[in-house]
């Protein structure tokens, strides 16, 4: 019996090592073959705007570049500024792409160290396997291959999480080291926002964790000062732009209530494989959820929301972009608007159930989810890339879910994301 266990363990370990190798190999091959698995890549895709923006900062002073009428981006210009200052190869388009690709290669490494902080007793091979799954994200890959901006934010997100793990609640005398830790955390978490505004959730989490901790009041006051100082550059940007973001077309125009449902399908899509990481088996998780009467108090409001959608919204319009995978699948499968509406609403409902089962009912989880739901109803169009691979990354780090990585569930996660990557490539090739 013991020999069989050892053989099975060695089999899973060998499979995991092979999968890690394949993840990195596919990443290099994807760059070499100009993969476009998220639809935003390609020589005529978003890269055209990105490199044009860089040239604006290359050929103008900072103030002129920020307010330049040809600047086409709804994110802060942080990456362009840094490339201009620190990257001597960025003028050439291919070298610019290679630079972003190499920076992106460091992110799975930082993901691994973050996992190591969160799952200290888990084997390294398992953690490396999980960290390699970020290389399977169509949006992470497209950003890395085509010189886009989002991956820089993940670089600082993981550094923030690692820094937060070193912060101890201090009830004794404060030292320079304590202030230095707070400064580093506030700087790194603020950097997440400066590379991607939707990740304002990261400095928000850090802020509330420090403020609500048992640390000395002086340390909390220093935290407020640091965040205020690091907000000043963005206040300047807003003054120059005359709004929160620079591109007028990207500004919200009303509320998009149907986005709540589409956001739930996208979030649930990334939480679903994590159900296999729970200590309780999946069938028992589902059974316990429906046996708990409190669960129905959370289901009822969503049923009312679905009734509102069915009586107030049309699901017949095929948008060329946005709304995630369910929107696209509904048009691939159904021609009849009625069947499409039923399919979409049923997907919304099942996704809401998956989300409720996945959560451990912690304040941080609700805080993050409410934030993403609010964000979804003010964004148009709402892309799946806004949640990928953010939800999985947060689940393994800041969510602090009660999950237990093992060989089998990590392999399941890897295969699940691989199927999504292959499907995304096929979709955008057709």
User: What are the segments in which pLDDT stays under 50 over at least 5 consecutive residues?
Assistant: none
What helical percentage do the residues reach?
A: 55-70%
- Tell me the major beta sheet: none
- The proportion of residues in beta strands is under 5%
The helix count comes to 20
Query: What's the overall average pLDDT, rounded?
Result: 89
Helix and strand run: HHHHHHHHHHHHHHHHHHHH
Give the overall shape.
Answer: globular
Distance between the termini: 50 Å
Query: Structural class, judged by helices and strands?
Result: mainly alpha
Q: How large, in whole angstroms, is the Cα Rg?
A: 22 Å
Strands, count: 0
Gist?
By secondary structure, this protein is mainly α.
What does this protein look like?
- The structure is a single chain.
- The protein has 430 residues and is mostly helical.
- Helix content is 68%, strand content 0%.
- The protein is built from 20 helices and no strands.
- Helix 11 packs antiparallel against helix 12.
- The longest helix is centred in the N-terminal third of the chain and has 31 residues.
- The model has no long low-confidence stretch (mean pLDDT 89).
